[in-house]
């Protein structure tokens, strides 16, 4: 009985015993979740900026048209081109022995640019010189024989008159003299031909020297010593066709494609103001040279040649340029504002049915401007109102960007307009 009572006592719940300590597994899980949230917050803070400002690219609005008594009747874009530019090559096929030019080097007309291996040309020249010497020697030999024949003919003429020799002997001497005269004439002609062949061989030697056809600047070096050059393309593309390219920097001008709808505004000798894309603050005076009398049916444009009234080393071929065709304004309109500015097309956005642009201020806050769009010039838009020259506009503004927002300028992404 006692043992059964003891067993029943062991089955009772002891309410006075302190509770068991809770498990720590849930605590570690909670700490892990909290750490993950902190890491994600840190990553977002770094990615989107400490102050929440979006990162944007900017460009500078460029004023177009002119003032000071001249107004722009038409604006267009084009490129600087050279009227005198040549890829210089040798007149013969040969191996390059020496190249004496480098890119950017200024050369004078007739200056030696390169030389070819002259072994073959020198051999031909030496052979022609030997042939000329042999022709002269032959002519001298016949000349001596002719002198003897003429003396013999004169003597026999005297003797035949005295009937001391037969007439047949006299006639034979006369025939021999005439034959030698003909031979001497032939020998002299052969000597003249040999002299011309020597001159041609000399030209062949001179053709191994490549000279500058005009004064200019080397913009490309195409060959190296040891390569084969030829005036014709040969050898399956392994033969060079030129030594280098030379440009006459005094012949630089601008070629502009003007829409055929506006070509009536352009006249020869018309004043022009040119602005290089590389130097937007430099206004270069120019004038229209000619309007090419043909149109491009694919682009519906007419090519116009413009002369630059400035010879500056900063102007180089293939530079992009914007030109404004000018005409005299009335005196009352001299103080009229310029027609507008030029900005990249990506700087203009559509908001609430209107066209707007964001201008970056000195503290990197943006101001929303309502703009009016004019013409489209390549990848640029003409803004006739709302912006001024020199304004820094945001390119591809984010949809969340609003007036007064702060932005961060992307490093190295500012447009060099």
UniProtKB/TrEMBL annotation:
Coiled coil: 132-201
Record carries keyword Cell membrane: no
Family: Belongs to the membrane fusion protein (MFP) (TC 8.A.1) family.
Database matches in InterPro entries: Beta-barrel_RND_2 (IPR058792), MdtA-like_BSH (IPR058625), RND_pump_MFP (IPR006143), YknX-like_C (IPR058637)
Domain Multidrug resistance protein MdtA-like barrel-sandwich hybrid: 84-230
Domain YknX-like C-terminal permuted SH3-like: 342-408
Alphabetized NCBIfam families for the sequence: RND_mfp
Keywords: Coiled coil, Membrane, Transmembrane, Transmembrane helix
CusB-like beta-barrel domain: residues covered: 254-326
One Gene Ontology molecular-function label: efflux transmembrane transporter activity
Protein name: Efflux RND transporter periplasmic adaptor subunit
Lineage, opening ranks: Bacteria, Pseudomonadati, Pseudomonadota, Gammaproteobacteria, Lysobacterales
An example Gene Ontology CC term for this record: efflux pump complex
Transmembrane feature ranges: 27-48
Keyword Transmembrane belongs to the record: yes
């Amino acid at each position: 009985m006692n043992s059964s009572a003891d067993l029943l006592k062991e089955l009772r719940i002891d309410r006075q015993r302190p509770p068991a300590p809770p498990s720590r597994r849930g605590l570690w899980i909670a700490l892990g979740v909290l750490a993950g949230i902190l890491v994600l917050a840190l990553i977002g803070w770094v990615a989107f900026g400490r102050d929440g400002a979006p990162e944007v690219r900017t460009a500078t609005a460029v004023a177009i048209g002119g003032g000071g008594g001249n107004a722009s009747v038409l604006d267009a874009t084009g490129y600087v081109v050279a009227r005198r530019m040549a890829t210089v090559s040798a007149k013969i096929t040969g191996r390059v022995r020496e190249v004496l030019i480098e890119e950017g080097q200024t050369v004078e007309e007739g200056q030696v640019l390169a030389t070819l291996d002259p072994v073959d040309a020198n051999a031909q020249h030496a052979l022609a010189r030997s042939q000329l010497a042999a022709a002269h020697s032959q002519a001298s030999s016949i000349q001596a024989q002719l002198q003897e024949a003429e003396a013999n003919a004169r003597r026999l003429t005297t003797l035949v008159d005295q009937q001391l020799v037969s007439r047949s002997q006299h006639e034979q001497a006369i025939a021999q003299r005439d034959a030698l005269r003909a031979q001497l004439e032939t020998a002299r002609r052969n000597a003249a031909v040999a002299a011309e062949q020597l001159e041609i061989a000399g030209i062949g030697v001179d053709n191994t020297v490549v000279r500058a056809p005009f004064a200019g600047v080397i913009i490309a070096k195409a060959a190296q010593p040891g390569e084969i050059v030829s005036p014709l393309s040969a050898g399956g593309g392994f033969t060079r066709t030129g030594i280098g390219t030379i440009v006459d920097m005094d012949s630089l001008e601008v070629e502009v494609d003007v829409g055929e709808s506006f070509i009536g505004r352009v006249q020869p000798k018309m004043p022009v103001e040119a602005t290089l894309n590389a130097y937007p603050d430099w206004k270069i005076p120019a004038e229209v040279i000619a309007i090419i009398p043909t149109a491009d049916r694919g682009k519906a444009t007419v090519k116009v040649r413009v002369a630059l009234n400035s010879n500056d080393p900063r102007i180089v071929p293939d530079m992009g340029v914007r030109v404004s065709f000018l005409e005299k304004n009335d005196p009352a309109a001299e103080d009229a504002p310029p027609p507008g500015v030029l900005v990249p097309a990506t700087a203009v956005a559509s908001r609430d049915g209107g066209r707007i642009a964001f201008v970056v201020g000195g503290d990197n806050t943006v101001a929303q401007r309502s703009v009016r769009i004019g013409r489209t010039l390549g990848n640029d838009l003409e803004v006739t109102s709302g912006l001024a020259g020199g304004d820094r506009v945001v390119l591809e503004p984010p949809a969340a960007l609003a007036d007064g927002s702060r932005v961060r300028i992307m490093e190295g992404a500012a447009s060099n307009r």
